[in-house]
Amino acid sequence: MKVKTSAPGKLMLFGEHAVVYGYPCIVTTVESRIYVEIEKSEQFKIDAPQVKDLRFVEKTIELFCDKYKVDNKLLIKTYSDFSSQYGFGSSSAVTVATIRALSDFYKIEMSKKEIFDLGYKVVLYIQGVGSGFDIAAATYGGTIYFVTGGKVIEPLSVKNLSLVIGYSGVKADTASIVKNLESRIHNSESKYTKIFENIKKIVEQAKVSLINSDWKKIGELMNQNHKFLQELGVSTDKLDKMCQAVVDAGAFGAKLSGAGGGDCMISLVPENKIKKVESSIIKAGGEILNVKTNI
Fold it and tell me: What is the reported pTM?
């Protein structure tokens, strides 16, 4: 018997970094997915050339087999629609897809919350830090309002999110950026608490604006969120340049998406300005990532 499952990648819309410290965020999924195939084998074997860190697959299988008392004599194969270099949450997506494949293979019913809880354990074990928003996105799909550790996982009804995504050309190391920020917060807690409180206000407003499809307001909130991420010290000159370029080209708004230090920026764009915005990203030295969101 062979079982095949998949999970989507994600993009952070609002609230990155603050979510690590107990504040809410809004994340949406992309149509690009990671696929996991499982079949019985003489011994445990993983064939996953495009998975950057195999520990996510290994730890998922170890925790699942231990929890449900099943054996791990399995051949696990993975393949992907997107590169792990783009910061779309490939580690979390492969974790969730592996849990789903194991539950299908062993005919063990798991709720979405149970999948999330197991996946979040894997991430914490390997990274030591993390809020779990990317595991939640891969598990629930669509656009979700999320509070650290899965205290709140609320699917939002968001339609026709017209995003243009630009890649800065620099692969960011999320764990080290998060840890670096943590050490700076330690030295100046009140300053950073104030920034996080402001980001929280933006997230709460964005939640309402997204449901109401108030694109102009969402764009303004993206610009504000980006300014606070600059204050946190996680943006880069390249990301700032790309965000400014798209706003000048007619985007409603733009911000970095994810940990910062590289990876991607996102812009909310009127349909009639998409081509102009895309060319402005290329002129600023970025690369256009053709992925659909809010799947």
Answer: 0.93
d(CA 52, CA 90): 8
Dihedral of CA atoms 86, 173, 138, 222 in degrees, nearest 10, equals: -70
Range of the domain at 203: 163-289
pLDDT tens digits for range 11-42:
999 999 999 999 999 999 998 899 999 999 99
Residues 76, 43 within the same domain = yes
Print burial letters for 42-51: b (CB count within 10 Å at least 16), e (below 16).
eeeebebeeb
Considering the domain architecture, whether residues 7 and 149 belong to the same structural domain is answered as yes
State the total domains in the chain. Answer: 2
- C-beta separation of 284 from 240 below 8 A: no
Q: Which helix (DSSP H) or strand (DSSP E) does residue 293 occupy?
A: none
Judge whether 145 and 209 are in contact, CB under 8 Å.
no
Last residue within a domain, chosen from 110, 141, 156? 156
Instruction: Count Cβ atoms below 10 Å from residue 266 Cβ, excluding itself.
Output: 27
Angle at 153 between CA 152 and CA 154, to 5 degrees: 105
CATH classification of the domain holding 135: 3.30.230.10
Active-site residue, 134 included: yes
The strand ranges marked E within 168-272 are 253-257, 264-268
Determine the Cα–Cα distance for residues 255 and 202; give it in Å rounded to an integer: 13
- CA gap 277, 279 in Å, rounded: 5
Instruction: Give per-residue pLDDT as tens, 209-263.
Output: 999 999 999 999 999 999 999 999 999 999 999 999 999 999 999 999 988 888 8
Of 134, 173, 237, 248, which residue is the catalytic one?
Answer: 134
Residue 295 has pLDDT above 60, yes or no: no
Residue 87, pLDDT score: 60
